[in-house]
Amino acid sequence: MITLASDFGSPYPAAMRGVLLSRTDARLVDIAHDLPRQDVRAGAFWLREVLPWFPPAVHLVVVDPGVGTDRAAIAVRAGEHVLIGPDNGILIPPARSLCERQGQESEGFEVCAIDPGEPASSTFHGRDVFAPAAAAVHEQGIDAVANRPFKSWTDLRFPAAHTGADGAQGEVLVIDGFGNVITNIPGELLNGVFGGTISINGDPIPAVKSYAHAQPGDRIATVGSHGNLELAVTQGRGDEAYDLTPGDSVEVILRDEDAMARR
Amino acid sequence: MITLASDFGSPYPAAMRGVLLSRTDARLVDIAHDLPRQDVRAGAFWLREVLPWFPPAVHLVVVDPGVGTDRAAIAVRAGEHVLIGPDNGILIPPARSLCERQGQESEGFEVCAIDPGEPASSTFHGRDVFAPAAAAVHEQGIDAVANRPFKSWTDLRFPAAHTGADGAQGEVLVIDGFGNVITNIPGELLNGVFGGTISINGDPIPAVKSYAHAQPGDRIATVGSHGNLELAVTQGRGDEAYDLTPGDSVEVILRDEDAMARR
Amino acid sequence: MITLASDFGSPYPAAMRGVLLSRTDARLVDIAHDLPRQDVRAGAFWLREVLPWFPPAVHLVVVDPGVGTDRAAIAVRAGEHVLIGPDNGILIPPARSLCERQGQESEGFEVCAIDPGEPASSTFHGRDVFAPAAAAVHEQGIDAVANRPFKSWTDLRFPAAHTGADGAQGEVLVIDGFGNVITNIPGELLNGVFGGTISINGDPIPAVKSYAHAQPGDRIATVGSHGNLELAVTQGRGDEAYDLTPGDSVEVILRDEDAMARR
């Protein structure tokens, strides 16, 4: 099985499918081809969340603003999974989550360099470098394309939130397609306050178990499917109602008398 | 074969694919993941139209504004097909059309409740409840997850148009991606008037066999691929030119002397 | 293997998948379903670029503004590939590129007419004519549906650019989803000037090997993955910055003293 993820939109991913199918009978499964454009951090977040649900596979990942420069092409072995893509950090968070999902140390992955050869283009290594490498790894194993350990790979880590008994200080990681604001604050923070009101950046907000536990148009705080605190609007867009964008600060106070008084 | 339909956009459907592929080798086929957001009625319409073209399959359907509430999870047996999704009505119109397509009574479907267990999230039952149920039904049959008849399921019916020899009174069901306005008025109404002019909400409109039988920009009335009267603009958007939205009334008069005089 | 390409958006392609899967176990591979709406020329360009990457397959192509008129339905044999779709020119550029890719003369393709029978609709021949034909060709070969040569097929050719030692005069073929402006000027023109500045429609523009060889927001000239001159903006949209649209003229002067003086 080979999964495909990119920010290419359409129809470029089809060229990658053609290259793969010319070289392998592997099942192809699309993750997404509308990952936020050239946004390595957002891509890494989504792949970290989604790839661990898959059985062992080769994961072809191309969000590659540095295509055509000297950034390396890498293959990352994470237990029974292999990730293939550019060395810009995007493969590392999913490599860690795949290791954890398989009961390994999160740092138990190995990074190797891929020899890109003489690619047919300087602008589409998804087609000319990464898809051929993914097919070769699927057919012959990772050593076929990447037998040279690569030490100087680019790391990417998401900032941790500061949490305490009374609340948390964190930030927005990504906005999803519904407009839900996904933070780095662990959802466990809300245990014990569901059905009550908390303070989000100074505003009183109901903490609820899911979107439908409020009226359409209401701002809510809930726990998204990734397990983090999510700021949303029932049947609406949280990013607009909260006026938040990735990187913005989010302060949660579980019991804020002042905010409550302002309700 | 398992088909997938949702309003999730991207990349959430990939998590459902991963869960399915961890549990079954079934062929996966996407119906659509951009069904109108949280719009049970529009989703039911499209599934009613599309699913009967498929061979026997398990159909995983997740448009689920009530996720995390006590709305039931159901499996619907419609001949050799099984539909899996939330009990909000969305499965019922396609269940009826699947029964009819197989030469059965439209009411010949059976509804069973699925035990949701303890889902990992309150916000993504597509991944945590419905995908595992679809995989289990594919591998072991419907009794594996739903052996308990469920009587109090939620029905959903589309309003019927009133038709006569002189015209019809109906309403807009959905707008498609081209902006075509799909009504509930049977297309047979136009038999005998193709090439002529009819009245739509008081305006004179040519009745044509297909879009190209008019000039780009012209408003037309035709019969869509679903068999219903469709209000369109050749190489344009019917919804904007007609200023119509789902639920709006549509009055057709086949021969309206007044409207004709105003041409 | 059957590939599917259309301008249908969603969910209409799912009906084609259902029809195909009711008649064949072929692997289905999506090329794109968001080809520019009713734009035969843009569709032909993308298929010309993408289909040659595939192994032998039946290619179902439906961009069909003339659906329901007397335009013919055709099957085009291009070596081991077969293209199925409407006779509006869209199949011809990919037929030529498929022939070339297989080491044949570009004109070595054959065009046959498909008997459309009595289609169930006048508005969706993708479902009612072309998908059944594609399934039949996959299962039984092209003679099953199209054994009658068709001489009067519609040709489509892209204009050639005029190139010389000092520059080129060409035009915009299409805009891709990133906003990159794809011209008909061969990319070889830039050999020897990478790293320097050229004149594009009178403006001085750096010629670079790939997007990241300039700063975010910079206008650049580069060679796209199709091998043609592409006008882009690093991490931005070239179509907006250059104010260019398909059909517009593009003049390149490799060494323009006047433009350089205006830098």
Describe this structure in words.
3 copies of one chain form a homotrimer. In chain A, strands 8, 9, 10, 11, 12, 13, 14 and 15 form an 8-stranded antiparallel beta sheet that branches. Chain A has a 7-stranded mixed beta sheet with strand order 2-1-3-5-4-6-7, with helices on both faces. In chain A, a hairpin with a 4-residue loop joins strand 13 (219-223) and strand 14. Chain A has 6 helices and 15 strands. The termini of chain A are far apart. Chain A is an alpha+beta fold. Chains in contact: A-B, A-C, B-C. Chains A and B meet through strand 2 and helix 2 of A and helix 1 of B.
Keywords:
alpha+beta, homotrimer, 263 residues, eight-stranded antiparallel sheet, 6 helices, seven-stranded mixed sheet
The radius of gyration over CA of chain A amounts to 21 Å
Q: What characterizes the major β-sheet of chain A?
A: 8 strands, antiparallel
Rounded average pLDDT of chain A: 95
Helical content class of chain A: 10-25%
Largest interface: A-B, 33 and 27 residues
Number of helices of chain A: 6
**SSE sequence of chain A, one letter per element:** EHEHEEEHEHEEEEEEEEHEH
Q: Which spans of chain A of ≥5 residues are poorly predicted at pLDDT below 50? A: none
Structural class of chain A: alpha+beta
- Quaternary status: homotrimer
Task: Give the CA-based shape of chain A.
Answer: elongated
Number of DSSP E strands of chain A: 15
Percentage of β-strand residues of chain A: 25-35%
Distance between the termini of chain A: 53 Å
List the helices and strands and how they pair.
Three copies of one chain form a homotrimer.
Chain A: E1 2-6, H1 12-21, E2 28-32, H2 40-50, E3 58-62, E4 73-78, E5 81-86, H3 92-101, E6 110-114, H4 125-140, E7 148-149, E8 162-163, E9 167-175, E10 181-186, E11 197-200, E12 203-206, E13 219-223, E14 228-233, H5 238-242, E15 249-253, H6 257-261
Parallel strand pairs in A: 1-2, 1-3, 3-5
Antiparallel strand pairs in A: 4-5, 4-6, 6-7, 8-9, 9-10, 9-15, 10-14, 11-12, 11-15, 13-14
Helix pairs in contact in A: 1-4, 2-3
